[in-house]
Design brief:
- The structure holds 2 protein chains of 2 kinds.
- By secondary structure, chain A is of the alpha+beta class.
- Chain A has 17 helices and 17 strands.
- Chain A has a 5-stranded mixed beta sheet with strand order 2-4-5-7-6, covered by helices on one side.
- Chain B is mostly beta strands.
- Chain B has a single domain, classed as Beta Barrel (OB fold (Dihydrolipoamide Acetyltransferase, E2P)).
- Classes of the chains: A alpha+beta, B mainly beta.
Chain lengths: 539, 154
Amino acid sequence: MDTSKYKAIYLQEAKAHLSGIESGLLALERDPSGKETLDTLFRHYHSIKGMSASMGYTPIMRLAHAEEDLLDRLRKGSLALSGALISALLRCLDLKRDLVGKVESGEPLDASIDPFLEELASASRPGQATAASPSASLPGIAPGPQAGLRLSSIMRVEGRVFDELLATVGDLFMVLSSFRALTHDSRSVEFKDGVHLLGKTIGTLHGSILSARMLPIEDLAAGLPRIVRDLATGSGKEVSLYTEGMDISLDRAILEGLSSPLVHIIRNAIDHGIETGSERIASGKLSMGSIRVRAHARKDRAVIEVSDDGRGIQREALRRKAADRGIPLEKTASMPEKELLKLVCLPGLSTAEEVSETSGRGVGMDVVKDAIEGLGGTLEIESEEGKGTKVVLELPRTTLITKALIVGTGLERFLVPISKIEKVVETSTEEIADGTFGYEGARLPVVPLASIFGLPEKNGGTTTLVLVDGGLALGQGGLSRLAALKVDSFGAEIDAYVKPLLPPISRLWGASGMTMMVDGTPVFLLDVQQIISRAVEGA
Amino acid sequence: MRGDKLVIDLDCGRYALDTRAVAGVVEKERLPFLPGGKGFASGIISFRNEPVTIIDLPSALGDLGAGAPSVHKIIVLREKGRVLGVDIGGSEISFLWDEDIEGKVSGEKGLYTSGRIHAGSRPIDIINWPALYDETLRMLSAEDHAPKESLDSR
């Protein structure tokens, strides 16, 4: 197992524990009866031992193990605390600090720790003289009283500091965009070079901040096997979990926001999707059900699919439940498959016949959908009766900064995420007279942004079409996913600092975020999929 | 209902807002478009680099005959994390101090009003702006209030 990527976390945690040990030993020396201090020290040593064992830092692990034993004896009263013992523990602390320093600098941990272990053993024997300080016997190790105060090279930083840094970079991007616009009309080579350099510098700064915030999905998924095991055991089922693509990194804030929805989807799958062993055998399946969590990248977004091989969503049950909530049967009968399945995301609607401790009350999938959309993502459901259900989550990999194209309709400006754009074309009005646009052998539906929003439409000989990915509502893939968003004009591509929509516009139709342009005008980032879905649905 | 009040003279009546909630007053010639905007939600502006949703106050108070104003005087209200901009068009504003309304406030409530001040020639209704905020939030809920536009209505 490659543990190198966890080294920074190890160093940060180890140093915190070492500081705790130092203050604990000094407190214990002042008050040997401090039971709480002993307990705290024990936890520090235990943590260091476990972390070092996981990382393969055996000398540190062995040392912490020996110290933990001594602390345990002190806690149980089978060993009396002495000044010699405290001194030996402090020398071992210095040694551990040096060893951790070697970990940090990438040096091998080839020093013998046996003399220190002997000193600990000697100090814990009543009436025995303390062995001489062993530091001199170890090459490359110079434990002992610290020559001076040292600060850790790894800093603990609150997440909000990174949020603020990223917001500041977002503002810088907006300033850069206006400078870039100015360079188009400028003949000054120095100005153009300066703006180019500014762009590179801001880009580097942005990249550094983003990389500091990125975490692999693996960090979140590490807890899934236990959750699946506990839920499966609780429901008397056998379920295996398979994961794939967990090395894809997402911004920490997005991963945090993904946590509850992911667990809820898995709970649903185990409680209501996967059948009992006997049911599965009766329907010709293996008695053990399976859940697969698969992640992959799609442009600048991450797609996470959670699928099970259970009974799937029962359409008739779904229609009945929807009818109970006032959606007429004739409406659900003619609904496209994707829209019908999405009804499970309506508040209070669940097709589950049984209510478990954790799901089946119709509380959850609406919250899951809201949570995913709140992260700037989308949720789609695919399901085949008798074969299983797949929930597809598409999420931005980073927050806040989004590459977007400025488009204009009448006096209004909007942003279209670059990740959703296939191509921008200028065409004649006659070319789209039948409401479709021919592109690479397919007829794409034309969606006029102006009429969608009730804005006045420009009439002219030519028109601008932004060919966008309209999402699954348009088909099962390939070109059929595309639609042509008709706008009056398009402008520059910008790195937009997109702010989330907060109440009272948190559930605004047709927009997924907004940005403040340099002139202070708020401009909305279009929710392309929502706009196209609604337009096509109503056609 | 005590405290200094900012008084708005609309064509349809006089209304008051608690000055403690007033974060600022700005004037705009034009309001940027609010996608999915419904009812009296009329636009969005940037105030101190933060977005502020705007409502048309005469419309909210039932004066549907009032035409689109040529100027937008917006009172930005902020309290307990809620921010709302109230567009009063070109209407005049004035102040009424706490000591001047002592003993002149009654409890008549309306849909978006929480009391009435009996001072001067015409009564002044105190606007319950949190109720306006809640209604704006409800109106702008995406699921229920998406535009009904479709491809075949082009």
